[in-house]
Amino acid sequence: MHKFFSMGLHDSAALPRIYVLGLYLNHVAVDLSVYLVVAVSAERFRALCLEKKRGEKAALFLAPPLAAAFALNVPKFFEFSIVEAALDGDTK
Fold first, then answer.
1. What are the φ/ψ torsions at residue 5 (nearest 5 degrees)?
2. Is 63's pLDDT higher than 90?
3. Do 75 and 27 contact (CB within 8 A), yes or no?
4. Contacts of 58 (CB under 8 A, 6+ apart)
5. β-pair partners for 84
6. Structural domains in the chain (count)
7. Backbone angle region of 8, left / alpha / beta, with phi > 0 → left and psi within -120 to 50 → alpha
8. Is residue 16 in a domain?
9. 25: pLDDT strictly greater than 80
10. Which residues contact 66 (CB under 8 A, 6 or more apart)?
11. C-alpha dihedral (15, 10, 89, 20), degrees to nearest 10
12. In the chain, where does DSSP find H-type helix?
């Protein structure tokens, strides 16, 4: 048996909340991957084709996509709700 289930966590009240957080982070990861591709492409274009000032860091191109990915997915976090169902099919 898997260690997760042998510890009794499958009956835990926190498990549905962890699942919702996982779904939120999944949406963030998908959006972040796209934003980072665009940001790195723009940084490379600027570094190769335009004059780059000394002292500019590539990290400045990474902060906006990271912030945007988390901020734009906040509504996704509130789309999910936890519904408890009894064995006879009634919901609480």
1. -80, -25
2. no
3. no
4. 43
5. none
6. 1
7. left
8. no
9. yes
10. 32, 35
11. 20
12. 3-6, 15-49, 59-72, 74-77
The pTM for the full model equals 0.64
Q: Which two tokens stand for residue 32?
A: 């972040």
What is the pLDDT confidence band of residue 21, given thresholds at 50, 70 and 90? confident
Mean pLDDT of the chain, nearest integer: 76
Of 81, 77, 41, nearest in space to 61 by CA: 41
How long a stretch of residues is the chain? 92
* Domain around 68: 35-79
Structure-token pair, residue 37: 């591709």
Q: Decide: 16 and 82 in contact? Cβ < 8 Å.
A: yes
User: CB neighbours of 49 closer than 8 A, spacing ≥ 6?
Assistant: none
Task: Tell me if 72 is assigned to some domain.
Answer: yes
Lookup: tokens for 2: 């898997």
Task: Return all residues near 3 (Cβ < 8 A) that are at least 6 apart.
Answer: none
